[in-house]
Amino acid sequence: MSTQEDVDASKANELARTDDEPIRILDADGNVLPNASVPDLSAEELRSMYEDIALARRFDERAISLQRQGRIATYAPMTGQEGAQVATGYALEERDWLFPTYREHAAKYVHGMSLESLLKPLRGHRDGYAIPDDVNVLPEYIPIATQLPQAVGMAWGHQLQGRVEEAVLCHFGDGATSEGDFHEGLNFAGVFDVPAVFVCNNNQWAISVPRERQTASETLAQKAQAYGIEGVRVDGLDPLATYEVTRAALRKAKEPTDGERRPTLIEAVQYRYGAHTTADDPSVYREDDEGDAWREKDPLERLRNYLYSEGILDDERDGEITERVETKIDDAIAAAESAESDPDSLFEHVYDEPPARLREQREELNALREKYGDDAFSEVLE
Amino acid sequence: MSSASSAESDEDGSGQSTESTGSGESTESGDERLTLVEAVCDGLYTEMSADDRVVVLGEDVGKNGGVFRATEGLYEAFGDDRVVDTPLAESGIVGTGIGLALSGMRPVAEIQFMGFSYPAFDQLVSHAARFRSRSHGAYTVPMVVRMPYGGGIRAPEHHSESKEAFFAHEPGLKVVAPSTPSDAKGLLTAAIRDPDPVVFLEPKLIYRAFREAVPTGSYEVPLSDAAIRREGSDVTVYAWGAMTRPALIAADNVADEYGVDVELVDLRTLSPLDVETIVDSFEKTGRAVIVHEGPKTGGLGAEVAATIQERAVLYQEAPIKRVTGFDAPVPLHSLEDFYLPQAVRIQDGILETVAF
Ligand SMILES: Cc1ncc(C[n+]2csc(CCOP(=O)(O)OP(=O)(O)O)c2C)c(N)n1
Ligand SMILES: [Mg+2]
């Protein structure tokens, strides 16, 4: 039952709505939409983008299967979201910085992390978070939304040091927009006008909580308005559109024109095809067929169709890609599975200089290992 | 103080179980064989049935029944007004929880993992803990904040924290950590009925480790009493939560192999501490080994040790030993066995203390 006041209020809301249709370049079948122009990417770059999306999809399948076999621990799948991850990664220059979450395996990979390093933490080895010197990727963020203020700080620091050619790109989910750190980060970004791009991977779900329950705002992009920065909605299942929008935001972050603000909030509208993680069972809280409409706009299929129609890809090349992808993943799994962590390493990197107390604890553990053998430590705890 | 019993009851599900708390009186007759996480859920169900003011709020607690299934079935039973999926915001959950409590409700907030409680830290320590004192008793916050805590489940980074000392340090908060299903239900009931805010820490490593008989109907285990899980005369081991289990294994080992008689005190409520039980046991044995998962420095073990020193120094036969997590972040799972106090480390600590 609604009162007259309710009706009036909802009309007012209706009028206040802007055109929030996400930006698209390709239609669901991979045809270029009328009035859309494709980004300036060479055939080779497009093929490579496609290959990385294909790799991400296959990586996901393999990782889920490894988890089922007990060969890796809990894994957060990205199927349906690879297009946005790879496309935003392609928009970055090597010197730009990436702040990823636990789900952005493909974004990390395209910005320079090895597949092996992605698998290592899943095998319990922390050195997978050790980023090579020439790679500008932060270790993945697990506490939700905490990366936003930090990304702002780094972009701010770059600006203070005159390093404006190094932009910062920060990923997070739809759920993250509810945290205080989201607000604080974007507010600072606006106030200090920093060269940062915020990519909200709106996959419609935060574990079991749907997007509508996360916020009463009509869109996530519109939150940008309150911070005095620009908000854009893009079809996150359209790799070309996501690339183009991210590219433009990065350009603006580095060289805004008069009156233009550097930071941008991009809402990349997408869908989490699978479970939140391998520990999650989505059938408890959502309908199985909910994803069907999204799958019809699948990023991999869409880009493949486009590339075929442009003559950039054919069966032979696609076959080569499939093989190459398999080999890369096989090699990474083999390398990750042969890695080990030395128990002694748990005391490393806590401080620059380990305090005496910590050195003592390290000796204590080593003495016990010597006395009882390492196997004694893995006897069942329960 | 409650009767001696074993935290190790009925691992094999054979139906034989030892009474584990002895302090709770069930209002209805009958037992159910539950795991610890089922007992938490049963405790919530029972209190929600008895008291309309009790509401559950948190991330994924509704339709999903909680990521550990601790609230399974509550949404179906009580509806979305009383079992509430909130936006993803811990400060929001605890802050609104405080407001709900001030309005006369009895909120039970869930923080999905202890490692994600920090956005709510300000609300907990600056407000929940001190509403009573700031308002000279005019306002109180009868709220429970549940958090799964601790390591050992091969979880990703930040999912294995054991930072009970943060909360036990805060005057005005009570901190509870059950180690058995029947305690979990009875302590949770007492926590919900308590007029002050309670941080309720659930040892997720043993959420499903064993079943035991849990009384149906409602009963309380008071938030004041430690439990003696094993009586002994040579040395006292103090532990709580999941650590009571390796402690008990170690105690049984040293009894079998070395004839050392261990008394195991399960603190159960970490704040306020049951000083009397802690000290009485030490006066009997004169030797103490304190076990916790959290880092050694500033851990709750230091408080237990200092309490013993203050009250019973003349009974002391050996240095007080702490077997704890190290002063380093919890490692990822390939090394967590080396970080968490295992039976082998506890046993070594017991033997060292006894040999002194
Ligand atoms: C501060 C914090 N609270 C809770 C969690 C537990 N948690 C992990 S992922 C997640 C949902 C995140 O949803 P969203 O931001 O939409 O990202 P998605 O997982 O969908 O990519 C939650 C609640 C966490 N990691 N950090
Ligand atoms: Mg999401």
From TrEMBL, chain A:
Annotated region (Disordered), positions in chain: 1-21
Q: Which GO terms describe its molecular function?
A: oxidoreductase activity, acting on the aldehyde or oxo group of donors, disulfide as acceptor
Lineage top rank: taxon: Archaea
UniProt cross-references to CDD domains, sorted A to Z: TPP_E1_PDC_ADC_BCADC
Composition-biased stretches (Basic and acidic residues): 8-21
Gene3D superfamilies cross-referenced by the UniProt entry: 3.40.50.970
Dehydrogenase E1 component domain location is 54-340
Biological process per Gene Ontology, one example term: sulfur compound biosynthetic process
Write the record's keywords in alphabetical order, separated by commas. Oxidoreductase, Pyruvate
Which N-terminal residues, if any, form the signal peptide?
A: none
InterPro entries the UniProt entry points to:
Alpha-ketoacid_DH_E1_comp (IPR050771), DH_E1 (IPR001017), PdhA/BkdA (IPR017596), THDP-binding (IPR029061)
Instruction: Name the NCBIfam families on file.
Output: PDH_E1_alph_x
Q: Under what name is this protein listed? A: Pyruvate dehydrogenase E1 component alpha subunit
Task: List the taxonomic lineage.
Answer: Archaea, Methanobacteriati, Methanobacteriota, Stenosarchaea group, Halobacteria
UniProtKB/TrEMBL annotation, chain B:
Residue ranges crossing the lipid bilayer per the database entry: none
Gene Ontology MF terms: oxidoreductase activity
Question: Short name of one Pfam family for this protein?
Answer: Transketolase_C
Q: What superkingdom heads the lineage?
A: Archaea
Q: Which SMART domains match?
A: Transket_pyr
**What keywords does the record list, in alphabetical order?**
Oxidoreductase, Pyruvate, Thiamine pyrophosphate
InterPro entries noted in UniProt: THDP-binding, Transketo_C/PFOR_II, Transketolase-like_Pyr-bd, Transketolase_C
Q: Which CDD domains match?
A: TPP_PYR_E1-PDHc-beta_like (cd07036)
Provide the residue span(s) of the region labelled Disordered: 1-33
Transketolase-like pyrimidine-binding domain sequence ranges: 34-209
Biased region (Low complexity) positions are 14-27
According to its UniProt entry, the protein's GO biological process terms are: organic acid metabolic process; sulfur compound biosynthetic process
What does this protein need as cofactor?
Answer: thiamine diphosphate
Protein name as catalogued: Pyruvate dehydrogenase E1 component beta subunit
Q: What is the lineage of its organism?
A: Archaea, Methanobacteriati, Methanobacteriota, Stenosarchaea group, Halobacteria
